């Protein structure tokens, strides 16, 4: 009898090899452990034990020390030496109840020791314990192998090149993507210096990359738009990240992750160009709209300019008459001349406001004092306000925070909303003032323009901000759609609400100046 | 009513325009009264005002057009020169249709405005004289007895003394006496002039 296989092989089932030269002992062990859910193997000498162990990888081997030929210690040595069997837990069996044998057994890698004569309970308990230990170990090893292979497949699958670098900048590891980007075999990369391979542009800024990626100061680095060299000497635009590697607080090199962004940069440029084009067109539309608003306001504006001009003409005629007289009243003359000066200032102020509104190019985003901007807008809307005989009231809390926006475009939106509100009020014969107010929200300044006009039709939500939709008989339908475009261009929002008691509130918000953001300069 | 001085009433909300125009007109020897609001002018208005109104078409509260309508309502005779801004010509045309004498666009040449003001003052003076004459005729007509009035009406209608005597069943001599009293009271010697006087009152005022 060399082997006994009591139960069908089950991968989950633990395997126990019983080794003893005494058939009586084997029988006792066998009787003790049968029907406990183990696959049991039996060997009556060392050679057989080794064969079975190599074939079945038993979890536990109960190994008799005193055997003719190869003794238990010898078997143990062989088992330990073979990687296939090294993991089995060995429990020595011996009648020798002396300390030396025990110590020697443990020293040789034995997991446990059972003294003869066997106690059934003890044998079962010790075997069971070893089986559990070994099974846990195996699960852990399997998990480790899985993790290792996952890591490897990740590194292989990542399209970014990854290098492991030692403190001198020598490549110790390269993933397939790194090889592909570098244009060389993975093996050929390992051992080369990163600087010689990829950062051959030794002028100025470039030269420092070879050093920078080693993270000698212990901090990670991110660089974009770096010129890197391939194995064949051609170059590409890269983005890289390098992170230091530590072992026991000691810098052992770095990991360099990089990718070719040549195409990405081209796309970004194209996108940026498109963005600029859109911004330019929006600015052109805004300018066209300002001109058109100016045209609509021309009568009012002409009136504004005509007043001082008329006064000046009158005063000048008066001066001419005074000059014709025999005696010249110097005091009266200088009084009239002062009045002329005041009126010409008044005229040029009107012209200045018009020019500012029409011709000033979009200045781009800057810090905007919304309170002041609203006050100026109202001043500008004064002509319309007077022509419509409707007041424009302004209510702004003290210490209104500043916003980030293009002041010219925001003013255009404010003016547009005020003019709409005046028109809505007039069409409804309302004499209630148009209320312009502002408030600070958590992360924005909200401006509201409220009227007591006729309100908006039911379906306004869907169409109001669409181009070429107009609620007005003479409207082009450009105003609100442009307003939305301008406000969203400032990262703001725009909308409206129906007002309780009649009328409409149009509102828009602008992002606040972010005081926590670092200074761009 | 006693003869009063003609005044140029400037109704203009812009202080500089009002002030400069006032000074200019005063330097021309004209009497001027400036009003910042149409409503303030209406407070001062009375039927005896003579002169003309230089009226800004665009003003807050009550604008020039509204003031014109109110003045027409009240039976004002003051000629109105509208001062308009650019683009207000349709308004000015409408104002002219309602009886404004003239309009002028800002900014204007002072000699043009002065000319228009003088024209308006002349018109006013003429109308005023016409109104004075009419008032005088009406005053004289009031002095006639019913019988004299009856005979005058027939004279004006062209009836001969004889016909009047027969139709009223009075003597021709009596008709002649009434007739000479009518002529005397009406302050004329000629039948033609009497007819013109009576017609002018009837034309202008059907009452």
UniProtKB/TrEMBL annotation, chain A:
GO terms for biological process: regulation of DNA-templated transcription. CDD domains: HisKA, PAS, REC_PA4781-like. The modification 4-aspartylphosphate is found at residue 64. It catalyses: ATP + protein L-histidine = ADP + protein N-phospho-L-histidine. Residues 222-273 form the PAC domain. InterPro entries: CheY-like_superfamily, HATPase_C_sf, HATPase_dom, His_kinase_dom, HisK_dim/P_dom, HisK_dim/P_sf, PAS, PAS-assoc_C. Gene3D superfamilies: 1.10.287.130, 3.40.50.2300, Histidine kinase-like ATPase, C-terminal domain, PAS domain. Residues 300-514 form the Histidine kinase domain. It comes from the Bacteria. It holds the Pfam family HATPase_c. Transmembrane segments: none annotated. GO terms for molecular function: phosphorelay sensor kinase activity. Its EC number is 2.7.13.3. Residues 147-192 form the PAS domain. Residues 15-131 form the Response regulatory domain. It is an enzyme of class 2 (transferase). Keywords: Kinase, Phosphoprotein, Transferase. NCBIfam families: sensory_box. PANTHER family: HYBRID SIGNAL TRANSDUCTION HISTIDINE KINASE C, TWO-COMPONENT HISTIDINE KINASE. This is histidine kinase. It comes from Halovibrio salipaludis.
TrEMBL record, chain B:
The modification 4-aspartylphosphate is found at residue 56. InterPro entries: CheY-like_superfamily (IPR011006), Sig_transdc_resp-reg_C-effctor (IPR016032), Sig_transdc_resp-reg_receiver (IPR001789), Tscrpt_reg_LuxR_C (IPR000792), WH-like_DNA-bd_sf (IPR036388). Gene3D superfamilies: 3.40.50.2300, Winged helix-like DNA-binding domain superfamily/Winged helix DNA-binding domain. Residues 137-202 form the HTH luxR-type domain. Residues 7-121 form the Response regulatory domain. It comes from Halovibrio salipaludis. This is DNA-binding response regulator. Keywords: DNA-binding, Phosphoprotein, Transcription, Transcription regulation, Two-component regulatory system. The keyword Transcription regulation applies. GO terms for biological process: phosphorelay signal transduction system; regulation of DNA-templated transcription. One of its GO terms (molecular function) is DNA binding.
């Amino acid at each position: 009898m060399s082997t006994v296989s009591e139960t069908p092989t089950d991968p989950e089932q633990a395997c126990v090899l019983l080794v003893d030269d005494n058939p009586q002992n084997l029988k006792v062990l066998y009787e003790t452990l049968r029907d406990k859910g183990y696959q049991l193997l039996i060997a009556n000498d060392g050679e057989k034990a080794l064969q079975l162990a190599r074939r079945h990888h038993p979890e536990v081997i109960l190994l008799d020390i005193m055997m003719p030929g190869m003794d238990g210690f010898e078997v143990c040595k062989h088992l330990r030496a073979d990687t296939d069997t090294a993991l089995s837990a060995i429990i020595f069996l011996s009648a020798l109840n002396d300390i030396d044998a025990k110590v020697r057994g443990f020293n040789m890698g034995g997991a446990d020791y059972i003294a003869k004569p066997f106690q059934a309970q003890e044998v079962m308990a010790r075997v069971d314990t070893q089986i559990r230990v070994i099974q846990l170990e195996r699960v852990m090893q399997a998990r480790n192998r899985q993790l290792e292979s996952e890591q490897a497949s990740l590194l292989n699958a990542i399209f970014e090149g990854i290098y492991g670098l030692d403190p001198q900048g020598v490549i110790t590891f390269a993933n397939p993507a790194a090889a592909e980007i570098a244009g060389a075999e993975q093996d050929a990369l390992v051992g080369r210096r990163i600087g010689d391979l990829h950062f051959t542009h030794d002028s100025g800024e470039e030269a420092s990359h070879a050093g920078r990626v080693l993270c000698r100061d212990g901090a990670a680095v991110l660089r974009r738009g770096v010129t890197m060299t391939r194995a064949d000497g051609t170059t590409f635009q890269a983005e890289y990240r390098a992170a230091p590697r530590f072992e026991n607080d000691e810098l052992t090199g770095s990991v360099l992750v990089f990718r070719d962004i040549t195409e990405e940069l081209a796309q970004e440029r194209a996108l940026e160009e498109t963005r600029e084009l859109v911004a330019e067109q929006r600015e052109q539309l805004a300018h066209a709209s300002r001109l058109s608003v100016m045209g609509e306001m021309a009568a009012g504006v002409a009136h504004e300019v005509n007043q001082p001009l008329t006064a000046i003409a009158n005063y000048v005629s008066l001066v001419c008459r005074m000059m014709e007289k025999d005696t010249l009243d110097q005091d009266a003359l200088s009084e009239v001349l002062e009045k002329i000066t005041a009126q010409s200032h008044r005229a040029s102020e009107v012209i200045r406001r018009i020019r500012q509104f029409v011709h000033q190019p979009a200045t781009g985003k800057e810090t905007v004092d919304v309170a002041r901007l609203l006050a100026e807008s109202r001043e500008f809307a004064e002509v319309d306000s007077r022509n419509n005989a409707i007041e424009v009231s302004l209510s702004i809390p003290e210490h209104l925070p500043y916003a980030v926006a293009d002041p010219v475009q925001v003013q255009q939106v404010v003016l547009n909303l005020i003019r709409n509100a005046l028109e809505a009020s007039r069409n409804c014969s309302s004499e209630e003032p148009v209320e312009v107010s502002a408030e600070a929200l958590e992360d924005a300044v909200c401006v509201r323009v409220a009227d007591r006009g006729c309100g908006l039709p039911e379906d306004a939500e869907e169409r109001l901000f669409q181009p070429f939709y107009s609620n007005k008989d003479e409207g082009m339908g450009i105003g609100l759609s442009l307003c939305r475009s301008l406000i969203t261009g400032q990262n703001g929002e725009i909308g409206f609400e129906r007002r309780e008691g009649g009328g409409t509130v149009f509102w828009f918000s602008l992002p606040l100046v972010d005081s926590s953001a670092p200074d761009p300069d | 009513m006693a003869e009063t001085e003609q005044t140029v009433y400037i109704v203009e909300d812009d202080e500089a325009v009002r002030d400069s125009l006032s000074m200019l007109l005063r330097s021309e020897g004209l009497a001027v009264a400036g009003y910042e609001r149409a409503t303030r002018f209406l407070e001062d208005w009375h039927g005896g005002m003579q002169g003309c109104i230089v009226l800004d078409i665009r003003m807050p509260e009550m604008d020039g057009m509204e003031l014109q309508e109110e003045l027409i309502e009240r039976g004002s005779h003051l000629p109105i020169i509208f001062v308009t801004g650019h683009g207000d010509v349709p308004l000015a045309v409408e104002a002219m249709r309602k009886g404004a004498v003239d309009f002028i666009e800002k900014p204007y040449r002072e000699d043009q405005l002065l000319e228009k003001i003088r024209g308006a003052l002349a018109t006013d003076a003429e109308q005023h004289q016409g109104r004075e004459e009419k008032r005088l005729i009406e005053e004289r007509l009031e002095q006639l007895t019913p019988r004299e009035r009856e005979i005058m009406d027939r004279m004006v209608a062209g009836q001969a003394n004889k016909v009047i005597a027969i139709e009223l069943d009075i003597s021709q001599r009596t008709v002649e006496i009434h007739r000479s009293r009518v002529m005397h009271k009406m302050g004329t010697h000629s039948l033609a002039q009497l007819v013109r006087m009576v017609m002018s009152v009837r034309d202008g005022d059907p009452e």
